[in-house]
Every structure is written in structure tokens, then in C-alpha cells.
């Protein structure tokens, strides 16, 4: 967009204050993602891993997290009514239904392990963790055996939901970034003023959704491999913390109208759960490559925009 503006109107055609707001969000969003994921993962370790029965604690915490997440999304993104009390009540009802369904699934799939873990609680344990002596930032050994299997099983289901949450936030932000210029051009072509509210046709949004899914199918595996394997070692609990934190940050940014990158935020969130385990748990080489690629794409995008604009103007002047 900056390259196109420079070609057609010069430096005066670019709203530099808006550009500064956008570029600052590229720096702020990974930091926010890292901070939120750090805290989420530390909360999981503090209130699930250090519990007397970690498996039962995970099974109890999962419906609560789903209730809060579904209620928040329903109220913020899908308000079913313009009346505040009614919209809030409907959002709470949606969260309660989601929490009930998740609880039923967990009890059905992992019930036998929960019973096994509960029956073994009466046995004395040499490595028992006394939660009252553990702070949020304290480090300690996590659960093992059946308890670890239950915790990973619960957060495996939770990670499916957090991935859906992240996909929703990603679509709400990155598809909007791609469709924004096209929507503005269509609005002007249909006689709308440049400062007027832009009404985006549903078919244009559908094409944007199709494009992002097609890109995921063809090239997404490269980014998935980098984020999932090359930054830090991920487990179901760490993956849930990273996805939940990144999706929350992106969704809030979308609500505020900040065109941040979901990938920037998710990378920061993955780094955050790595930092929660220690600075050496994050691979500095991979992070360095990612940051360099972020910096390079800005001037390269502008250069390509100038080049394509020049070609299109030449072609149109020849045809017309």
C-alpha cells in the first residue's frame, strides 16, 4: 500500500501517522503474545501441574476455560442482541453449553484414566508437591505416568479448540488485511466517497476466505513446521497456551482495528512458552531468521508494489 501510494501521489499521499501505528503494532503484538502465553503457561503449571491430582485439575480447568472463551467470543464477536443484558445472558448460555459439551467429552474419553488416577491417590508419594509453597514463577517437576497422560489428553482436546480460536482470529485479521484494499476500490468504483463507511460484499469475503485456505493447503506446511518444531519444543499444554494467548491478542487487536499479523503474534506466543521454561529453551537461530524475514518483507513488498503499478499503468495506457 505504501509503495502504491508513493508511485501515484508521492510522499504526501501516504498517511505516515497511520503507518507508524501499524508498524508499532508489529513490534507490540509479538511482545504481547509472548507475555500472555508466558502467563497462561505459568498458570497451567501452577494450578494444574502442582495440584495434588493434576489429571483431575486439568479435567476441571478445561470446561472453565471453554466457558470463559466461548462467552467472551460470543459477546465480543457474535452479539446475538443489541440489548446489553440480553446479549450477555445469551453469551453466558453459549459458554455454559460449550463447557458442558467439553466436560462430557473429557469424562467419556478419559474417564477410565481419571478413575485410575483417583484410586492411586491414597498411595503415599515421595515426590508430592505442596502447592502452598509454590509461587507462580516457581519451577518444579511436572506430573508423570497416568497423571501426565490425563493432562496431555485433556489439553489435546483443548488444543483443538484453541486452534479453532486461532483460526477464527487469523481470519478476522489477516483476511481483512487482504480484502481491505479491494473493498476500498470497489466502494469507489460504485460511487462511494473515500471517507465513507465501506460495505464489503459477502462474495468478496468468501474469496478472501478461499484464498487463505488455499494458501494454507499449498504452502502452510512450511510455516507450521517452523512454528511447531523449530522455535521451541511444544507439548499439548504449551501449544494450548501459545494458541490461546495469540488468538486472544489478535482478536482484541481486530476489535480495536489494528491490522497486526497473526503470524507475528503466534511466533511471539510460542517464544513466550519457551521462555517460561528458560531462555535456553528457545532456538535463537530460528528466531533470528524469522525476525530478518519480517524486516525484509517490508521494503520488498513496497518494491514489488511499485513495479506492478508501473507495469499496470503502462499496459492500461497502451490498451486504452
Automatic annotation (TrEMBL):
Topology in membrane: Multi-pass membrane protein
Aminoacyl-tRNA synthetase found in the keyword field: no
GO CC terms of this entry: membrane
Any one GO molecular-function label of the UniProt entry: phosphate transmembrane transporter activity
Alphabetical UniProt keywords: Membrane, Phosphate transport, Transmembrane, Transmembrane helix, Transport
Compartments where located: Membrane
Recorded superkingdom: Eukaryota
Transmembrane stretches, start-end: 26-44, 56-77, 83-102, 150-169, 204-224, 291-311
Main location (coarse class): membrane
GO biological process, one term: phosphate ion transmembrane transport
One Pfam family cited in the UniProt record for this chain: PHO4
The protein, known as: PHOSPHATE TRANSPORTER
